[in-house]
């Protein structure tokens, strides 16, 4: 039951994009179309699960034991960069796959969701099973947010806002409204 | 790969930079936390700008984004260790937002756009100016959100602070959505002033 709660919290009540604003820029910009959002979200989920899991394992069994836990951040960044590089090599063999995924790669390394989830797991001392669920939930939550933003942007393209709000301000305001809507999940208790 | 080449129009670059500041904006519920994150951002930005510019001829072009990320994560770690020793309370109040600053897009983009092309002295100056710019946004946001979101000013995590209003006038501002709506309102205001100025320049007699 506790594990289900962690997953639901990471996806809905404590969604990284909506409540912590981590990775909000990627969620907004890579989501011109809903399909793009799902692809990017899937990539982030995969990298978050693999790289996050590896970083957490390294932290709990090597770095903490050697008393060099402060190196978690650079090592985590290195693992994420390596994971993205491996993904790039794999996708390079398939032209169609590379074409669809290429625009997402540079965005993943600077995605705050992955490192944020790792440090949240470390801060709360979750243990490996719960941490993996948190990383999975963070990725799914990011996908959900990207999907919401993609739909908002599609709708905004056909709207006619006042001149002062046209362009960037209306997008940020719309994002704020989406964030507000998601804050309704904060009342979700079990 | 260059992040910037992915953002074709300048409008999406501006949007990207505004939104890239958001992880930092989530922290700015009080002036105290804004000050803490501004300090970390400023020092780590100057440090990584100097490092990137000092090693700019050795960094292979293909790997530069990854190397910038690593340099930035090392400087944030360095600042984090010092901050934890000097201001333990401020560091604890930042939580996960402090390490996440290392992978902030706004920082990486700035390193790529300026520090990678200039000498260390110039890069340090640019880091200082950019950091001050971001810091001004965050301090302003923290001031407004603390004053109207909680009705107090200069409160630290231990409590206290100056009581300005008897109750929180706009408690919504203390929530995450409040920060975004505040930024949207400010951006709309700036755009409105720009439109007015443009109209004045084109038709000076009608306005």
Give the SSE map.
The complex is a heterodimer of chains A (190) and B (207).
Chain A: H1 2-13, H2 16-20, H3 24-29, H4 34-63, H5 72-92, H6 95-101, H7 105-109, H8 112-124, H9 128-157, H10 168-182
Helix pairs in contact in A: 1-9, 4-5, 4-8, 4-9, 8-9, 9-10
Chain B: H1 10-20, H2 22-25, H3 31-54, H4 64-86, H5 88-94, H6 97-100, H7 105-113, H8 120-150, E1 152-153, E2 162-163, H9 176-202
Antiparallel strand pairs in B: 1-2
Helix pairs in contact in B: 3-4, 3-5, 3-8, 4-5, 4-7
Question: How would you characterize the overall build of this protein?
Answer:
- The complex is a heterodimer of chains A (190) and B (207).
- Helix content of chain A is 76%, strand content 0%.
- With 190 residues, chain A is mainly α.
- Chain A has one domain.
- The longest helix of chain A has 30 residues.
- Chain B has one domain.
- Chain B has a two-stranded antiparallel ribbon with strand order 1-2.
- In chain B, a hairpin with an 8-residue loop joins strand 1 and strand 2.
- Chain B is flat.
- The termini of chain B are far apart.
- At the A-B interface, helix 2, helix 3, helix 5, helix 7 and helix 8 of A face helix 1, helix 2, helix 4, helix 6 and helix 9 of B.
Which consecutive residue ranges of chain A, at least 5 long each, have pLDDT under 50?
Answer: none
Enumerate the strands of the largest sheet of chain B in spatial order, edge to edge or round the barrel. Answer: 1-2
Strand content of chain B: under 5%
Strand content of chain A: under 5%
Radius of gyration of chain A: 18 Å
């Amino acid at each position: 039951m506790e594990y289900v709660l962690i997953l639901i919290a990471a996806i809905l009540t404590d969604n990284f994009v909506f409540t912590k604003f981590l990775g909000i820029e990627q969620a907004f910009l890579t989501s011109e179309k809903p399909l793009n959002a799902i692809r990017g979200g899937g990539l982030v989920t995969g990298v978050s699960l693999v790289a996050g899991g590896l970083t957490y394992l390294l932290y709990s069994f090597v770095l903490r034991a050697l008393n060099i836990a402060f190196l978690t951040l650079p090592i985590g960044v290195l693992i994420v960069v390596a994971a993205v590089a491996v993904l790039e090599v794999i996708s390079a063999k398939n032209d169609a796959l590379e074409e669809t995924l290429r625009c997402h790669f540079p965005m993943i390394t600077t995605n705050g969701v992955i490192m944020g989830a790792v440090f949240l797991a470390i801060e709360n001392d979750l243990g490996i099973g719960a941490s993996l669920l948190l990383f999975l939930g963070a990725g799914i939550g990011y996908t959900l947010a990207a999907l919401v933003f993609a739909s908002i942007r599609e709708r905004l393209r056909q709207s006619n806002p006042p001149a002062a709000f046209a362009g960037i301000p209306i997008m940020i305001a719309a994002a704020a409204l989406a964030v507000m809507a998601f804050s309704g999940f904060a009342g979700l208790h079990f | 790969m260059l992040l910037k080449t992915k953002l074709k129009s300048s409008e999406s670059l501006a949007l990207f930079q505004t939104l890239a500041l958001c992880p930092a904006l989530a922290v700015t519920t009080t002036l105290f936390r804004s000050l803490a994150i501004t300090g970390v951002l400023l020092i780590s930005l100057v440090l990584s700008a100097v490092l990137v510019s000092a090693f700019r001829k050795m960094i292979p072009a293909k790997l530069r984004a990854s190397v910038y990320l690593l340099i930035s994560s090392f400087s944030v770690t360095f600042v984090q260790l010092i901050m934890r020793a000097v201001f333990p309370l401020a560091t604890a109040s930042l939580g996960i937002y402090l390490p996440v600053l290392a992978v902030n897009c706004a920082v990486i983009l700035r390193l790529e756009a300026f520090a990678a092309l200039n000498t260390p002295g110039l890069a340090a100056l640019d880091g200082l100016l950019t950091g001050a710019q971001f810091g001004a946004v965050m301090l302003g946001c923290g001031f407004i959100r603390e004053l109207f979101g909680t009705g107090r000013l200069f409160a630290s995590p231990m409590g206290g602070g100056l009581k300005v209003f008897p109750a929180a006038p706009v408690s919504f501002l203390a929530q995450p959505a409040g920060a975004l709506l505040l930024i949207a309102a400010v951006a709309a205001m700036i755009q409105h002033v720009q439109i007015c100025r443009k109209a004045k320049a084109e038709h000076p007699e009608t306005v």
